[in-house]
Design brief:
With 313 residues, the protein is of the alpha/beta class. It has one domain: Divalent-metal-dependent TIM barrel enzymes (TIM Barrel), CATH 3.20.20.150. It is 36% helix and 20% strand. The chain is built from 9 helices and 11 strands. The strands form 2 sheets. Strands 1, 2, 3, 4, 5, 6, 7, 10 and 11 form a 9-stranded parallel β-sheet that branches. The protein starts with 13 loop residues before the first strand and ends with a strand.
Length: 313
């Protein structure tokens, strides 16, 4: 060691968060209120929380601005940072009922969330989805509808000092090259990619180069680990099986699945990412949805990250 050099281990760059969707009961798991989910996240030792922005958690119909001020006090008292507010959008939805102002309603939802996100503080970040592709509509018609809606979401969020994060989740913009192009088309400084490993893996896309490419613009990623289960159909007339597509994905504890998180995290770090890593349980999980199993998964995630020096406690 060089004389006079500090011996302390350098502080790892990433920060861990827990997504309250894990306790929403949407896949048969144990349901907690938003306040209970906040308390449990703190008890489990997470420094950050990602809050689901719909019932039974942060619905704009149920939580006023004053309610959000009380939530902010609760977060502060428990030393929790609001790492992201997770909105649910689909900008090609409602095409069959053109008389309904579908995207106006969604943009208003994002604007209402932006006011609440500003109060909750922290990263001042709203996660959004793009659009599910509709086979009966020309692709670039859907493309335009999607980027125009995203632009207006960004503009209205910017008035509250809020950033929009576009997750590679829905059909349009899931592939990395398409996600990059969509963000370029929106052309707003407060739009960032929220690029997730599980989407890339399940679609069979190369991981490392994509993660390094997007890392400089990223502040947040959502993680979960899965085993991919082949499906077959027995055909008695041939005394044989036919493969079914796609395979099923079952969530398992972090580090026990098929996803290459070693490459993902090292590639993000190589690209300069130092943001939030949020753990989610938003699908059926091995072992079932009892609260004790959910807690075990959350603790396994923290242990996984800490053993690899990936996150601050």
């Amino acid at each position: 060691m060089t004389h006079g050099a500090k011996s302390e281990k350098p502080e790892p760059p990433m920060k861990s968060a827990l997504f309250t969707v894990s306790f929403a009961g949407l896949w048969g798991q144990h349901r907690l209120s938003l306040e209970q989910a906040i308390d449990l996240t703190a008890e489990l030792g997470f420094p950050g929380i990602e809050i689901m922005a719909k019932r039974p958690h942060l619905s704009v119909l149920d939580y006023t601005l004053d309610d959000c001020r009380r939530l902010r006090e609760r977060l502060d008292q428990r030393n929790l940072t609001a790492a992201a507010i997770a909105a649910y959008t689909n900008f090609t939805g409602g095409w069959e009922s053109a008389e309904v102002p579908w995207n106006e309603l969604q943009i208003q939802y994002i604007e209402a969330l932006a006011a609440r996100t500003a109060i909750l503080g922290g990263e001042r970040l709203i996660r959004v989805f793009s659009s599910y592709e509709r086979p009966e509509v020309a692709f670039f018609t859907q493309w335009q509808r999607t980027f125009e809606a995203l632009r207006e979401c960004c503009d209205r969020a910017a008035a509250h000092g809020v950033t929009i994060g576009l997750q590679n989740h829905h059909d349009i913009g899931a592939p990395t090259r398409t996600l990059v192009e969509l963000i370029r088309e929106v052309d707003r400084p407060n739009l960032i990619p929220m690029f997730d490993c599980w989407s890339v893996h399940l679609r069979g896309e190369p991981l490392g180069d994509a993660a390094r490419q997007l890392a400089p613009r990223m502040r947040f990623t959502t993680v979960a680990d899965y085993v991919v289960l082949p499906r077959t159909s027995y055909q008695p007339q041939w005394t044989n099986y036919v493969e079914q597509s796609p395979p099923a994905a079952l969530a398992v504890p972090m580090g026990e699945g098929d996803l290459d998180y070693v490459t993902f995290f090292s590639s993000l770090e190589a690209g300069g990412f130092n943001g939030w890593v949020s753990y989610e349980m938003c699908s059926p999980i091995r072992g079932g949805g009892a609260l004790e199993n959910l807690k075990r998964y959350a603790q396994a995630f923290r242990s996984y990250m800490e053993k690899r020096g990936r996150t601050r406690a």
